[in-house]
Specification:
Shape: extended
Number of strands: 5
Distance between the termini: 27 Å
Structural class: alpha+beta
Strand content: 25-35%
Number of helices: 3
Helix content: 40-55%
Radius of gyration: 19 Å
Length: 104
């Protein structure tokens, strides 16, 4: 499932007395602020939702699964999210209600 800024804006409009363009700007500004703080090297904690942080990954050997050819994956910095209590319980509830049972 992909959730766009527009869809988030529509959800906000359903809860708050805002115009769609203002709600979309609110969502964009929020993500911009998160990006700015991460660029400064700071962690961003949204209570109940989770904690965004940067993680430095070392170079490592990777393998093309189709050909088996090895190559070096360069060092890089990635953004990771550690889910908070609210997000974790919401995702578990969603997974429980949308579970698929496979039969042999």
């Amino acid at each position: 499932m992909t959730l766009t800024k527009r869809a988030l804006g529509e959800l906000i409009c359903n809860e708050l007395p805002l115009v769609l363009c203002d709600a979309e700007k609110l969502v964009s500004d929020m993500f911009e602020e998160i990006s700015v703080e991460l660029a400064k090297g700071k962690n961003v904690n949204l209570h109940g939702f989770g904690k965004f942080r940067l993680l430095d990954k070392s170079p490592r050997v990777g393998r093309n699964p189709k050909t088996g050819q090895e190559f070096i994956i360069t060092a890089r910095t990635v953004c990771v999210l550690r889910p908070g209590v609210w997000l974790q319980s919401a995702s578990q509830a969603f997974a429980h209600t949308h579970a698929v049972t496979l039969q042999d």
